[in-house]
Amino acid sequence: MNEEISARELVDQLDEFQKLYSTIEKTILKKNRLNTSSFSIMSQLTEQPLTLKQLTSLFSLDKSTLSRQVNQLVYLRLILKEAGTDKRVFYLSTSKEAKQLMNAIQYEIEFYIYDLFALWPNDEKNYYWFF
Predict the structure, then answer these.
(1) What digits encode the pLDDT tens for the residues 39-63?
(2) Are 101 and 32 in contact (CB under 8 A)?
(3) How far apart are CA 7 and CA 116, in angstroms?
């Protein structure tokens, strides 16, 4: 294997990998009736319960846009809505089912990525792993 690779070639390969990863992720999410936004929201809420206002700030989205997405996830029982000390404020968190679904999705994505890299020769895997 040629140890020399230009920065442009590396960027092109990373770009190709990102496109492939995105395709894999979207396919798996679609199979599980989710989209990238829903998965991102659930991932954020796995770390800690947040209010809708906190989520809008994190995602830099309009409150009404995010509210529609959150309400759909609440309807699907993937997000739980819990009242705070102020009854006007609700804390959002992921349900047990959502955590299981997210783990299954992440496992499946990792499986496909691992399978993709299995086709690479070991010397190339070791070389690129360095970066």
Answers:
(1) 999 999 998 999 999 999 999 888 8
(2) yes
(3) 23
